Amino acid sequence: MRAARQAAMGRVRLGATILSIVFALVLAALGCSRPLATLEAAGGPLILERSEIQSSSSRSQRIVAIAKKHLGTPYMWGGSSPAGFDCSGFVMYVYALVGVSLPHNAAEQYQHGVLVTRERLEPGDVVFFDGLRHDGIYIGGGRFIHARRSGGGVIISGLGESWYRTRWVGGRRL
Questions:
Q1: CA terminus-to-terminus distance, the chain
Q2: Which of 32, 87, 104, 112 is catalytic?
Q3: Is 87 a catalytic residue?
Q4: Looking at the domain that runs over 58-173, which CATH code has it been given?
Q5: Structure pTM?
Q6: pLDDT digits 0-9 by tens, 114-157
Q7: pLDDT digits (tens, 9 = 90+) for 9-35
Q8: Among 54, 31, 49, which Cα is nearest to 174's?
C-alpha cells in the first residue's frame, strides 16, 4: 500500500513538473523575457514568488513615471530620444529603460507581448490606433501618454476622445 502511494505521488509530482515546464515554454513563446513563475531546482511544483508579483506592478509604475518625465518633449519624425520623439520611438525609448527591446515601428511593436482588451488595460500597457500607425503608453484612468505630431509632442490624451475612440486597434501587455 505504501509503495502504491509513493508511486502515485511520484506521478503527481512528475505531472506538476511537466505542467510547469509547459507553462514556462508558453511564456517564452509569448515573448516574456522573465516569467512570473519559477520551477524549483529539485523539480518541485510551480511556485509564484511574491517579489516577482510585486516587480510586475513596480515595473508598470516605473514605465509610467519614465514616460511622464518626458511630457512636453517635442515631436520629431523618426525621433527616439529626449531631443524629440515620434510615437513608436517614444514607446521604444521608455521600454528600453526598463529592459525591454522593441522595434521603432508601431505595427511591429504590436507583434510583441499579449493582447489586452480596452476594458482590461493596466498602466504600462501599450495602446495602438489608426491601423497600427500610432501608439502610446496607457497610464490609467482612461488616459495614455504618447508623442503626437500635432499638439506639442509628448502629451496625455484620453481613450474616449473621438479620434482615438474611433481608431482604436488594441492594447498589448509586454
A1: 49
A2: 87
A3: yes
A4: 3.90.1720.10
A5: 0.69
A6: 999 999 999 999 999 999 999 999 999 999 999 999 878 999 99
A7: 444 444 444 555 544 444 444 444 333
A8: 31
